[in-house]
Design brief:
With 1016 residues, the protein is α/β, with parallel strands linked by helices. The protein has 36 helices and 24 strands. β4 (94-99) and β5 form a beta hairpin.
Length: 1016
C-alpha cells in the first residue's frame, strides 16, 4: 500500500493484509506531519465533509487557546476557549463544531461561502489576516488553526437542532432521508434545477453538481418537480449520492465515469455538460440560461423537457428558457478546463496568439478576430468537431475570482437560439423535435442505412461523426463507440437526420407515468452505477464516522432516520461516507488537478488534508505573488524550504514503517521538476540568529539547533534503515534534499535531475553526510571538487559516474515505475533479498548509461591533479587555508598550460566558483572532508554515521551564528546583490584552530537533545 503524497514522498509497500495506517501508532503523528498551510475553500458539500473528515482526526478531543484576530468573533472565541472539541457535524455546506460539555455544548456554526478558508498547520504558522475570525492554538500538539468564513456564529444545542432541522437530506450523511426530498419534489411546481439548489430540500449540491446530476439522470432543469416520476426521482437521488461520494473520495468534482471518459476523450474527461459547448455523448448543443441568479446547463438531446398536454411553464420560467443561449464559456473558478481542452472562445489572447503562431497564421488583431481566425482554421482542416489544442507555451487556463454566490466568471461570447420544449403528446406520436426544425435527411447518410458503425471504415466513421459535430480523433474503437452513442441518442428522439435509417429509428418509451428515461442507460453502458466506487475489498475499507458523536450515538431522531435509511437504499445506493475505502489526500488531489490542467480553482484548495499517519514533506514552487515568503535556490527558483516539523514527520513515518513487520521497502519521491530541494528555512534561521544575537554556542531552544537535530538524526536512521530505501530524484537535488535521498540503497535519477551542493556560497558548508558520500561513492577527489566548487551535475552520465545515482530511468517512465513499485511486496528477512525484489521491479524501466562519456570522467585527471593532494594536507603541516590556496594555484596552472580548451574551461570555472565562496566555508569543508576521507580508510570515528552526524550537527549549528552566514544569505537570498563581504576575507587568515572550535562538541544538554531524536 502507498502511504504517501506528492512532493518529498515517503511510501510504504506492504501486503494486502497489512494493518491500516491508524494502527501504526506513533506519538502525535497528525501534528508531526502537518507540514504546511492547507487552505480550505468550499463550494459544494463534498469539500465540507472532507474538512470534517480531516479535523475529526486532527482536532477532535483537544483543547485550544481561542482568539478572534479580527475582533469579529471575540465573544465566540471566549466561549470556546480551553474547551475540548467534542464532535463535528456536517449538513451540506454547513459545519458545526461542538466544544465543551456534551449535555450543553457551545456550537460554532461555519458556512464558508466562496472565499472562506480553514488553515490548519504546525506552530507557529503564518500571521492571521484581516479576515481571520477564529484562531485555535494547541501548543502541546504543535497545531494552530485559523478560520475565515462568510458565516461564523456561536450557538447552543437548540441552535444546532434548529439550523440542521431546516436543511434537507445530505447525500453524504448516513441519516439522509431521501423521502423528505421526494415529498417536497412531488408537490412542487418549482423546476427540478431550482429544487436541487435549495438547501432546505437537499443539502450540499452546488451549481456544478446540479448540472451533472441532471444530465446523468436525463432530466431537464426546468422539469417541474411534481411531474418527475418516482423512477426519475430515484435516478436523481442515486446520482447525487454517487457523485458527491466520488467527490468526497477523490477531492475533485469528477462526474464522467472513468470508462466513458476514455471513450469520449477531451474535453469530456471530467464533466459532461458544465461549461461545455456540445455534449460529449451525442454532439448536441449545450444550452444555458439563468435560474435564481445561477446558470443552468442542459443538453438539448439528452435532457428533453417533458410537459403534460395542456400544461405550460410558469411565465417567468418560460421567459428564462426562451432566452437560453449556447454555452457562454468562461474560465471557471470552481472547475476550469485544462488549457489543452479549451475551445477558441475560452482561450486568453495569449493562448490564441500562441496557437495561431503554432499554425503559422497571423496572430494580430482583437480577441474576436483571433477567435474567428482560429475557428476558420479548424474548419478548413476538416475537424470542426474537435477543438484545437493551444500551444504548450500558452500555459494553463487561469480564473477570475467570482462573486460570493457565483460559480461562473463573465462570459466571453454567445448567440441565442431557443431551447426546445417537447410535449408528451408529441412523444407518444414519436414526433420529437427541438424548437428549431429538424434538419433534412442527409442523402449520403441514408444510402448507408444498412451499414452499422462496427462495419464502417475509419473514413466513413469520421464522415458520419462530422454530421453530429463530434470529435473525429482517436482509435477506430473509440470512433465506433462515439458514433453508436450519437445514433442511439438520435434514435431516441426521432431525429431523422441523425438516424442511420428510418428503419432503425425508435420512438421514446417515455409516458406520462414515466417522465424520465431509464437511469442505467444514462450511465453510458447501462451498467450499474454503483460500480463506480468499486475496486476496494472489504478488508481495505476505511470506515469514516461522518455523523456519529464520540459516545457512538447520533441523537434519537437522527439514529432512527439512519437505521431507516440502512433498511432501504433508495436508487440502489446508500448515502453517507462510510465504507468508501481509501480517501485521497489533499496533496494527491491537488496533484491530480495539476496533471489534468486544472489551475486556480476552489476545488484545488477546498480540501482539508487527511495526512494522519502519512509522512509528507512538500517543496512546491510558490506563486510569484508570494515572493516575500519564498526561499530561493542557487538558480533563483523559488521553492518552499523543508521545515523541522516536516523532517520530524518523515522521520516518524520511517520509524513506523521499520517497526511494521509487513513493511517491505520505503520510497521517497518528489512532486515536481524543481521540488527535490530544501534549504532548512535558511532565511528564517538567519532572522532567528539576528534576533538572538548569540556568539558561539546557541541556546538550547534556538531554532537552528532544533532544525539540525531533526535533520542529522534522520540521516542516521536512513543509513541504518533495515529495509530497502529507494530515492526517486526527478528534479533539482540540493541541500537537505541531498541528505534525504543520497543515503538510500537505490537512487534513481532522470534526465531532469540537477545536483548541486552550493552551501559555501552562503557561508555554510556541504553537510548532511555528503562527506561520507564523497569518501565512499565518488571516484578520486570528485566529491571534494563538487563540495568546494558547488558545481552542478545535469546529466545521468555525470550523476552515475559520481556515485550519486545508481540507476537511470527516463522521466517518461517514472509514472509506470511508481505504479510497479507500488504493487504489494513481501518483507524479506534479509535486506539484500528485499533489494532483489526492488531491482526486479526496476529493471524493465532502467536504461544503461555510458559513464565513460560523462564530463566528470573527462575532467577526472585534472580533478585529481588539483584536488586530491589536499585530502592529505594535514600530513604536510599545512593549514586548511594554505591547502585551498594550493588548489587554486594548481587550477591556475591548468588554466594557463592545458592544451585542450575544455581543460582550460574546467579550471577557470572551478576558480571562479571558489573565489566567490566564503573563505571560512571552503576551509571548513576541506578540513572536514579530509578527516572523513582519512577515517573511512582507517575505520576511524568519522566512519561511523553517528559520530559523523554529531560533528556536522556541531559545525552547522555554530556556522549559522557567524557573520559569514548572515552576510552570505543577505547577499544571495535577501538583497540578492551577490556581493557578500566575508570576514575573514582571505583564505590565509583562516586557521585550523578556528575550524576546530567550530566542530568542537556541543554542551551536553544540546548533545542529548540530538541523541533523543534517534528512532531506529
Amino acid at each position: 500500500m502507498l502511504l504517501a503524497c506528492r512532493s518529498v514522498r515517503t511510501v510504504l509497500f506492504r501486503s494486502h493484509n497489512c494493518r491500516s495506517r491508524s494502527q501504526l501508532g506513533s506519538p502525535h503523528p497528525e501534528f508531526q506531519q502537518l507540514h504546511r498551510l492547507i487552505p480550505v475553500r468550499m463550494v459544494e458539500g463534498h469539500g465540507c465533509h472532507r474538512v470534517a473528515h480531516a479535523h475529526r482526526k486532527l482536532l477532535l478531543g483537544k483543547r485550544f487557546v481561542a482568539t478572534s484576530p479580527n475582533k469579529r468573533f471575540t465573544e465566540g472565541a471566549q466561549a470556546v476557549h480551553d474547551k475540548p472539541l467534542i464532535w463535528i457535524e456536517v449538513h451540506g455546506k454547513n459545519l458545526f463544531y461542538f466544544f465543551g460539555d456534551a449535555s450543553s455544548p457551545q456550537v460554532v456554526h461555519i458556512h464558508f461561502g466562496m472565499s472562506g478558508a480553514f488553515k490548519t498547520m504546525t506552530l507557529p504558522g503564518p500571521d492571521p489576516t484581516e479576515t481571520t475570525r477564529l484562531k485555535l492554538v494547541n501548543e502541546k500538539h504543535g497545531v494552530v488553526a485559523q478560520l475565515s468564513a462568510m458565516t461564523v456564529i456561536l450557538g447552543d444545542l437548540d441552535y444546532y437542532n434548529d439550523k440542521s432541522g431546516k436543511l434537507g437530506p445530505d447525500p453524504l450523511r448516513q441519516d439522509a432521508d431521501s423521502g423528505r426530498l421526494w415529498d417536497k419534489m412531488r408537490t412542487s411546481k418549482k423546476p427540478v434545477g431550482g429544487i436541487l439548489m435549495d438547501q432546505t430540500a437537499v443539502a450540499g449540491i452546488g451549481n456544478i453538481y446540479r448540472a451533472e446530476i441532471l444530465f446523468k439522470a436525463g432530466v431537464h432543469p426546468e422539469q417541474p418537480g411534481r411531474s418527475v416520476s418516482r423512477e426519475g426521482f430515484e435516478s436523481l437521488w442515486r446520482h447525487s449520492v454517487l457523485l458527491l461520494q466520488r467527490g468526497f473520495k477523490t477531492g475533485s468534482i469528477l462526474t464522467v465515469d472513468e470508462d466513458e471518459a476514455k471513450k469520449l476523450g477531451k474535453p469530456w474527461t471530467r464533466r459532461y455538460v458544465y461549461n461545455h459547448a456540445t455534449c460529449g455523448r451525442c454532439g448536441s448543443r449545450i444550452s444555458t440560461w439563468d435560474m435564481q441568479a445561477r446558470t443552468v446547463y442542459a443538453c438539448e438531446t439528452c435532457q428533453p423537457l417533458h410537459l403534460e398536454p395542456g400544461t405550460e411553464l410558469a411565465p417567468g420560467r418560460a421567459s428564462a428558457l426562451k432566452a437560453s443561449t449556447p454555452t457562454k464559456q468562461f474560465k471557471s473558478h470552481c472547475a476550469p478546463e485544462a488549457a489543452a481542452q479549451a475551445m477558441p472562445a475560452q482561450m486568453t489572447v495569449k493562448e490564441l496568439k500562441a496557437t495561431l503562431e503554432g499554425l503559422q497564421l497571423d496572430s494580430k488583431g482583437s480577441k474576436a478576430v483571433l477567435i474567428g481566425r482560429l475557428q476558420e482554421a479548424q474548419a478548413a482542416a476538416g475537424d470542426k468537431g474537435k477543438e484545437a489544442e493551444p500551444a504548450k507555451a500558452a500555459g494553463p487556463v487561469g480564473g477570475v475570482k467570482p462573486g460570493l454566490d457565483q460559480d461562473e466568471d463573465q462570459p466571453l461570447q454567445g448567440p441565442e437560439p431557443l431551447m426546445g420544449v417537447q410535449h408528451l403528446d408529441q412523444v407518444e406520436k414519436g414526433d420529437l423535435t427541438s424548437g428549431d426544425e429538424a434538419a433534412p435527411v442527409d442523402a449520403d447518410l441514408a444510402q448507408q442505412q444498412a451499414v452499422p458503425p462496427a462495419k464502417m471504415l475509419v473514413p466513413q466513421l469520421k464522415e458520419q461523426l462530422k454530421t453530429f459535430n463530434m470529435p473525429v480523433s482517436g482509435k477506430r474503437a473509440d470512433l465506433v463507440y462515439r458514433l453508436e452513442t450519437a445514433l442511439a441518442a438520435a434514435a431516441a428522439t426521432g431525429h431523422a437526420s441523425d438516424a442511420m435509417s428510418p428503419d432503425t429509428a425508435v420512438t421514446s418509451g417515455t409516458t406520462a407515468g414515466n417522465a424520465v428515461p431509464d437511469a442505467a442507460a444514462r450511465d453510458g453502458h447501462g451498467a450499474s452505477a454503483s460500480a463506480v466506487l468499486d475496486g476496494q475489498s472489504e478488508a481495505d475499507l476505511e470506515l469514516v464516522s461522518d455523523d456519529v458523536r464520540p459516545d457512538g450515538s447520533g441523537g434519537g431522531e437522527a439514529k432512527s432516520r439512519r437505521d431507516k435509511a440502512k433498511q432501504k437504499a433508495v436508487g440502489g445506493v446508500q448515502p453517507g461516507t462510510q465504507g468508501l475505502g481509501h480517501i485521497v489526500t489533499a496533496e494527491d488531489a491537488a496533484h491530480e488537478k495539476a496533471a489534468a490542467g486544472e489551475g486556480r480553482n476552489v476545488e484545488h484548495v477546498a480540501e482539508a488534508n487527511d495526512l494522519t499517519h502519512t509522512a509528507i514533506m512538500h517543496t512546491r514552487k510558490r506563486k510569484p505573488a508570494q515572493k516575500a515568503q519564498q526561499v530561493g535556490n542557487a538558480e533563483g527558483q523559488a521553492v518552499e524550504a523543508t521545515k523541522r516539523k516536516m523532517v520530524e514527520a518523515a522521520h516518524q513515518a520511517l520509524a513506523d514503517f521499520v517497526k511494521n513487520k509487513e513493511a517491505a521497502a520505503v520510497l521517497i519521491d518528489s512532486s515536481g521538476d524543481k521540488a527535490f530541494c530544501a534549504g532548512g528555512d535558511i532565511r528564517d534561521i538567519r532572522q532567528a540568529v539576528l534576533d538572538s544575537c548569540y556568539d558561539k554556542d546557541p541556546p538550547l531552544d534556538h531554532r537552528a539547533a532544533r532544525v539540525f537535530q531533526a535533520e542529522y538524526s534522520l540521516m542516521c536512521d536512513i543509513v541504518n534503515c533495515p529495509i530497502p530505501y529507494i530515492s526517486l530524484c526527478n528534479g533539482i537535488w540540493m541541500g537537505f534534499g541531498v541528505g534525504f535521498a543520497v543515503h538510500g540503497d537505490i537512487r534513481v535519477v532522470t534526465e531532469n535531475t540537477m545536483f548541486a551542493m552550493p552551501e559555501n556560497m552562503i557561508g555554510l558548508w556541504p553537510d548532511v553526510g555528503f562527506a561520507r558520500v564523497a569518501a565512499t561513492k565518488a571516484p578520486g577527489a570528485t566529491g571534494l571538487y563538487l563540495a568546494l566548487t558547488g558545481s552542478r551535475l545535469k546529466t545521468p552520465e555525470d550523476l552515475l559516474y559520481a556515485g550519486l545515482g545508481t540507476h537511470f530511468v527516463p522521466s517518461g517512465q517514472v509514472p509506470a515505475l511508481r505504479e510497479a513499485l507500488a504493487k504489494p511486496l513481501k518483507r524479506q528477512p534479509h535486506k539484500q533479498h528485499g533489494m532483489q525484489q526492488i531491482l526486479d521491479r526496476l529493471q524493465p524501466y532502467a536504461q544503461e548509461v555510458d559513464t565513460s562519456s560523462a564530463q566528470l570522467a573527462h575532467d577526472q585527471p585534472a580533478i585529481d591533479y588539483c584536488f586530491k593532494p589536499a585530502l592529505g594536507y594535514k600530513a604536510t603541516g599545512q593549514s586548511a587555508g594554505q591547502a585551498v590556496l594550493k588548489i587554486l594555484s594548481m587550477l591556475r596552472e591548468v588554466a594557463d598550460n592545458a592544451q585542450a580548451e575544455k581543460d582550460k574551461d574546467f579550471a577557470k570555472n572551478a576558480m571562479k566558483s571558489m573565489s566567490a565562496a566564503c573563505p571560512t566555508s571552503l576551509c571548513l569543508s576541506l578540513y572536514h572532508f579530509a578527516q572523513v576521507h582519512a577515517d573511512t580508510r582507517s575505520q576511524g570515528p568519522l566512519s561511523n554515521i553517528y559520530d559523523l552526524m554529531k560533528q556536522e550537527y556541531c559545525g552547522a549549528t555554530r556556522m549559522v551564528s557567524r557573520h559569514d552566514f548572515i552576510e552570505g544569505v543577505r547577499a544571495m537570498m535577501v538583497d540578492k546583490d551577490k556581493s557578500p563581504k566575508w570576514d575573514p576575507k582571505d583564505l590565509s587568515q583562516v586557521s585550523d584552530e578556528d575550524l576546530e572550535s567550530i566542530l568542537d562538541a556541543m554542551p551536553k544538554e544540546l548533545e542529548l537533545g540530538w541523541k533523543e531524536q534517534l528512532l531506529i
